[in-house]
């Protein structure tokens, strides 16, 4: 991972969890070759561990294959709640929880 390639390390992205893609607004440019272009996704590995879907991949410089960051996205369903998380030097940190059925019991109190 390369701190020199990003403007801010692990920015807070609220509830925006990316399963695929790159947060280019945070990309300063490649610290190795000094080019600023699109970022490639390499070594994408989808796996499932005990009901948790985990997707990991590398953000890589299009010009020199320098590894900018390692991206991890998780998805799980627990008691009708869909839980998402994202952890990445480039894309940031985020988590989100949504109810899978039409009437969310958390909102019934309002």
TrEMBL record:
Keywords: Activator, Developmental protein, Metal-binding, Transcription, Transcription regulation, Zinc. The keyword Metal-binding applies. GO terms for molecular function: zinc ion binding. GO terms for biological process: fibroblast growth factor receptor signaling pathway; positive regulation of DNA-templated transcription. PANTHER family: PROTEIN CHURCHILL (PTHR31931). Belongs to the Churchill family. This is Protein Churchill. The lineage of its organism: Eukaryota, Metazoa, Chordata, Craniata, Vertebrata. The gene is churc1.
């Amino acid at each position: 991972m390369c701190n020199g390639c990003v403007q801010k390390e692990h920015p807070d992205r609220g509830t925006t969890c990316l399963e695929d893609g790159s947060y280019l607004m945070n990309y300063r440019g490649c610290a190795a070759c000094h080019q600023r272009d699109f970022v490639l996704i390499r070594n994408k590995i989808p796996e499932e561990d005990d009901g948790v879907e985990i997707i990991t991949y590398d953000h890589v410089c299009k010009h020199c294959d320098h590894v900018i960051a390692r991206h991890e996205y998780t998805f799980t369903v627990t008691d009708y709640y869909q839980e998402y998380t994202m952890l990445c030097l480039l894309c940031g940190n985020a988590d989100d929880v949504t109810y899978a059925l039409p009437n969310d019991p958390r909102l019934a109190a309002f």
